[in-house]
Write a structure and sequence with these properties.
about 575 residues, alpha/beta, eight-stranded mixed sheet, 23 strands
């Protein structure tokens, strides 16, 4: 398998911060477990080795702009406001005499005392000083460094509250950006606390069940039976049905990959995450949303590296060896991969280091080195080599096996990935006779899921190395009814049409920026009976659904899926049918 960076269904192109919001500042920093770590696990802030204060502080005082005249509040003023909502960044939204203030850490329904920190013409930012009246959804965040980290934005909100808010975020975007009609009864379904908790519990239970069972029959019949009540003309006038968010039974310790920046302190190597808005490394011994084994591997690597005198990379000088520690955990098979990202090929005491790692962490099946000599904040360089063991580890999503290389994309929450892909297959409504096109196919994860239920699947992806992985995964699973091609979907799909390939279903899973406009035009020209849209960004989902609806499709149902508990990110799956067609 190639070791060049993958798009993996475009998700690497998605990262604006985890996200799958979990980007550079340590993918392992996003927490999860109900018990509170001991006080010795509290984070300590350090600078990268040799970094001067100028590397982590502004070089000069920013010039303050003149105060804006006529605002109902002024900078540094304290006031009490009611929080009426929460924005897409997880900040509470309140109003002081009609003026909007965003308050980090405040929840909808709360009354809070705040200090105004920054003002603009239409809105401002305020610091939470006191919770006068708490929301029923407020809980104590179990992570001891939650306020410093920023990887999780809403740990202070109950999980039922998170699921309800994420659903409402999808609804708001559909209505505000897409100007789409959402069923009124669903739009308010999670409004009161008791009903919201009931719906959340029901959907957590639903997510825990197998996505597709033989008893449910084939996809087409199942969709017809379940949606027959929302497909008539009266239901169409009522609008899109947005289901409750599909959550997790245990929304902690769900991440299978850690990417940890390494620094140094007097006591040796440190690694954890970057403090908010900086490259200061906060040392951390545990991350509550990482699998426990990932924490253990990172801790051992730091310990062994410190003992052997391994130096940490210094961003400012470009010197030092160890830049990042990347750990991948296969949930189903238990296999683990360790990748040492270094500033050069030569590793001092390499054999001793590898031997100590193997002895301390016997379940590691692969130890690799990635060489990155560039002065950049991009984690991986172009060269990857195996130091010990295999070049891949293996894992399963459902019944499909995948080979995971050091740089191949693989969804970080395998439990919810199966839920997401199961919903995608369900919305495709396959009977075994259909031809399906999977745009943005990445390494073929959804394509191979679809191939189990379709006659033929065609996948297209613009990143050549991802297609190499997709073909390898198809061979690994002995699936012969799937074909992959490199290129832009909007170029390849019309060529397929010229070759006589007609799609019954088109599945799209674009990056955060949404579908390329030319791809949307291509879909409208292909006229498949059904379109399934997998989205990681509710705003671009709403925008693209509007285009498809204007082109003759109707959005029947949308299901939010919580891939990243305790963060503001939400994925959604939408089912569209050609107007006049019943699923």
């Amino acid at each position: 398998m190639s070791n060049t960076n993958r798009s993996g269904r475009g998700k690497n192109r998605r990262n604006s911060a985890a996200s799958q919001g979990q980007g550079n500042a340590m993918a392992s920093r996003q927490p999860g477990k109900s018990s509170r770590p001991s006080s010795r696990q509290q984070g300590k802030e350090v600078r990268p080795q040799g970094a001067s204060l100028s590397a982590v502080r502004p070089k000069g005082r920013a010039r303050e702009s003149a105060p804006i005249e006529g605002l109902p509040v002024s900078k540094n003023e304290e006031t009490v406001i009611d929080i009426i909502g929460m924005n897409h960044d997880g900040e509470g939204v309140g109003r002081a005499n009609g003026y909007t203030l965003f308050v980090q850490g405040a929840l909808p329904g709360e009354t809070v005392r705040v200090r105004v920190m920054k003002t603009k013409k239409q809105y401002g930012y305020a610091k939470l000083l006191e919770i006068v009246k708490a929301s029923p959804d407020r809980v104590s965040a179990p992570c001891p460094i939650y306020d410093q980290c920023g990887g999780c934005q809403i740990q202070h909100m109950s999980y039922a509250g998170q699921l309800a808010w994420k659903r409402q975020l999808v609804v708001d975007n559909l209505q505000r950006i897409g100007k789409l009609n959402v069923m009124v009864e669903d739009a308010g379904a999670q409004g009161d606390e008791a009903n919201r908790n009931r719906l959340s519990e029901e959907n957590v239970d639903q997510a825990a069940e197998p996505a597709i069972t033989e008893e449910q029959g084939n996809g087409s019949n199942r969709i017809r039976l379940r949606l027959e009540g929302v497909m008539n003309e009266e239901a169409a006038e009522q609008g899109i049905r947005v289901l409750p968010t599909m959550g997790m039974n245990e929304p902690w310790r769900y991440r299978n990959k850690a990417q940890v920046p390494i620094g140094v302190t007097e006591g040796g190597l440190v690694g954890g995450f970057y403090a908010k808005g900086s490259h200061r490394i906060i040392d951390m011994e545990t991350c509550l949303i990482q699998h426990e084994h990932n924490d253990e591997v990172v801790a051992k690597v730091k310990e062994i590296g410190s003992h052997l005198g391994i130096s940490a990379y210094n961003e400012e000088t470009g010197r030092g060896l160890l830049r990042h520690v990347v750990v991948k955990k296969a949930f189903r098979t238990g296999e683990m991969m360790l990748v040492l990202v270094t500033n050069g090929r030569d590793i001092p005491h390499k054999d001793e280091w590898i031997g100590s790692i193997r002895e301390a962490i016997p379940h590691v099946a692969s130890i690799c080195q990635n060489v990155n000599k560039k002065q950049t904040n991009v984690i991986f360089g172009d060269e990857t080599r195996v130091l010990w063991g295999r070049d891949v580890i293996y894992d399963y999503i459902g019944d499909v096996q995948f080979a995971i290389s050091p740089r191949s994309f693989y969804q970080v929450n395998p439990v919810q990935t199966e839920v997401l892909y199961g919903k995608t297959v369900e919305y495709a409504g396959l009977s075994g006779k259909e031809t399906v096109i999977d745009a943005y196919c990445g390494i073929g994860t959804i394509s191979l899921f679809l191939a189990q239920h379709a006659d033929q699947v065609y996948g297209v992806e613009i990143v050549p190395e991802a297609i190499d992985d997709a073909r390898s995964n198809a061979l690994l699973n002995e699936m012969k009814n799937v074909k992959f091609e490199v290129g832009a979907s909007e170029d390849v799909i019309p060529r397929w049409k010229e070759q006589g390939i007609e799609a019954d279903v088109i599945v799209v899973d674009p990056p955060r920026k949404g579908c390329d406009p030319r791809l949307l035009d291509t879909i409208l020209e292909m006229k498949p009976e059904r379109v399934v849209y997998v989205s990681c960004n509710p705003s671009t989902l709403a925008r693209d659904l509007r285009v498809l609806e204007d082109g003759g499709y109707r959005t029947v149902e949308v299901t939010p899926v919580d891939m990243f508990p305790h963060t503001v990110h939400v994925e959604s799956v939408a089912m569209l049918v050609k107007s006049g067609v019943t699923p």
